[in-house]
Write a structure and sequence with these properties.
By secondary structure, the protein is an alpha/beta fold. The protein has 4 domains: about 120 residues, Rossmann fold (3-Layer(aba) Sandwich); about 120 residues, Transcription Regulator spoIIAA, CATH 3.30.750.210; about 110 residues, Transcription Regulator spoIIAA; about 55 residues, OB fold (Dihydrolipoamide Acetyltransferase, E2P). Helix content is about 35%, strand content about 20%. The chain is built from 13 helices and 19 strands. The strands form 5 sheets. It has a 6-stranded parallel β-sheet, with helices on both faces. The protein has a 5-stranded mixed barrel with strand order 15-16-17-19-18. It has a 3-stranded parallel β-sheet with strand order 7-10-11, with helices on both faces. α8 packs parallel to α9, α9 runs parallel beside α11 and α12 packs parallel to α13. The longest helix has 24 residues. The N terminus is likely disordered. Bound molecules: iron/sulfur cluster. The site of iron/sulfur cluster has 9 residues, from α6. The site of iron/sulfur cluster (SF4) has 9 residues, from α6.
């Protein structure tokens, strides 16, 4: 039997310790996805609990953390390029500690050691909570590598660790780690392990604590949020993601809830209904298409067809009023023909996504797709990619123009990077709106949209 809430004192993931690095500074470089960004916040929280202070200048740091990604080939190139630049820092300051964690460390610990011998600590995705202990071990014993397999224990979820958030008003909350799917292009199941759900009581308690701390927006994170809870047993009942959304929506102070990502094969009406019926849950959905071709989707092991994807999308749009939808698309998967790609364009035209993250296929060693052969020539991938980007950009601009004249509730992120007298805000549908004026970050207010640019909107406060 599993209890819903972790008893106080149970998650002994970090024991009481006397801070040992008071006043020393740390610098974190994060590669990759939101999951990594969130892990970096946890690492920062642990280092600060040990007395350390952040610095934005790597040359002033006593500890540099590199939180790595291995989702694409160029992620590796960027990682080793960056580690190369740290070699000079280490020569200049031999006391510097260089720590490499995250997915690339989990998957390629030996490669990190071989290619960057100046690294002090290599730790895996299941060892995040051990970062301070590992630094202690380096001080005493020299370089250390620690990679664990998934423990299967929800108490090891990174969200149970202290955190230093990048934003005062907005936070990520991990609801699951790992993934039980087997998309052939994806390294996540290999580096993050099987899916583990956190107990709903733990997730809700964390959101309540965040709300008490002034957070008004949370994003629930999981590789496949729709399968949330399938591995839990709460007195004979499995918690559902839709229930979690509804419970999170009742928490006072949380004005906006987002989540990422659902899997198109698993999203069902109950989640769409929870979105529609829970005021705080944003009418925004990130639904990764990957390809429109049934043949390529089958080769990717995605578990749906182009038509089925469009049906799921129509279901969500029918239930959730004014739903904004983004997606991911991979161009040039092995064996993709011109006809396959044309089908992707067709689905994109029909889906009319509000925005899309578009990628050129790059084989990840260790994934089935890397062994498939039948590679699409690079120039064909580039040419298809350019056509897709042109099409999607036109649709995004069109969708943005449809917002002009409408009243939208926006959340202030902060001053615009280009002009401090203009605020950067975000709509429920996740569009950026620039608004003249100085507004407190974390504040909600209504704007009328006055202009649509290809990738942002402008508006005035009403
Ligand atoms: S659902 Fe597929 S793409 Fe997403 S993390 Fe799991 S294996 Fe990777």
């Amino acid at each position: 039997m599993t209890t819903d809430v972790t008893p106080i004192g149970m998650p002994a993931v970090h024991e009481e310790r006397v801070p040992r690095r008071a006043g020393r500074s740390y610098f974190i470089r994060t590669f990759g996805c939101q999951m990594n960004e969130h892990d970096s916040e946890r690492i920062a929280g642990l280092l600060e609990a040990d007395g350390m202070v952040p610095t934005g200048d790597v040359r002033r740091a006593d500890v540099v953390i590199v939180n790595t990604c291995t989702i694409r080939e160029n992620a590796d190139q960027r990682l080793y390029g960056y580690l190369g630049s740290l070699k000079a820092e280490k020569q200049r300051n031999p006391g510097l500690r260089i720590v490499v964690g995250g997915c690339a460390a989990q998957k390629d610990k030996d490669a990190v050691r071989e290619r960057a011998g100046w690294v002090d600590v290599v730790f895996g995705t299941h060892n995040t909570h051990r970062v301070v202990d590992l630094l202690d071990r380096v001080d005493e014993w020299g370089p250390v590598t620690e990679i664990w397999e998934e423990s299967g224990n929800p108490d090891d979820a990174p969200s149970m660790l202290p955190s230093r958030r990048e934003s005062d008003h907005s936070a990520w909350v991990t609801i699951t780690t790992g993934c039980n799917n087997s998309c052939t292009f994806c390294i996540v199941p290999i580096v993050r392990g099987p899916e583990i759900s956190r107990r709903p009581g733990d997730v809700i308690s964390e959101i309540r604590r965040l709300a008490d701390d002034g957070v008004v927006e949370v994003t629930l994170l999981g590789q496949n949020v729709n399968s949330y809870g399938r591995d839990l047993d709460l007195n004979g009942r499995q918690p559902l993601f839709a229930d979690l959304l509804r419970r999170a929506g009742e928490i006072e102070g949380i004005g906006r809830i987002r989540y990422t990502s659902p899997h198109p094969k698993d999203i069902k009406e109950d989640v769409a209904l929870a979105m529609a019926e829970t005021a705080a849950v944003a009418a925004q959905l990130h639904l990764p298409l990957q390809s429109g071709s049934d043949r390529i989707l089958a080769a990717m092991h995605r578990g749906y067809t182009g038509t089925r994807f469009l049906e799921k999308l129509a279901m969500a749009r029918d239930i959730v009023p004014d739903l904004s939808v983004s997606t991911d698309i991979i161009v040039g998967f092995p064996g993709e023909t011109e006809a396959d790609f044309e089908r992707t364009l067709e689905v994109v035209r029909e889906a009319r996504f509000d925005s899309a993250y578009m990628f050129q296929f790059s084989p990840r060693p260790g994934t089935p797709a890397a062994e498939m052969g039948d590679a699409v020539p690079a120039d064909a991938i580039q040419e298809r990619f350019d056509r897709l980007v042109t099409l999607q950009n036109a649709i995004t601009h069109e969708r943005n123009r449809e917002r002009v004249g409408r009243i939208e509730t926006v959340l202030v992120e902060g001053p615009s990077k280009r002009n401090p007298l203009v605020a950067t805000t975000r709509t429920e549908g996740n569009r950026i709106v620039h608004v003249d004026g100085v507004f407190e970050p974390g504040r909600f207010f209504d704007v009328r949209i006055t202009r649509a640019a290809p990738h942002y909107l402008e508006g005035v406060q009403v």
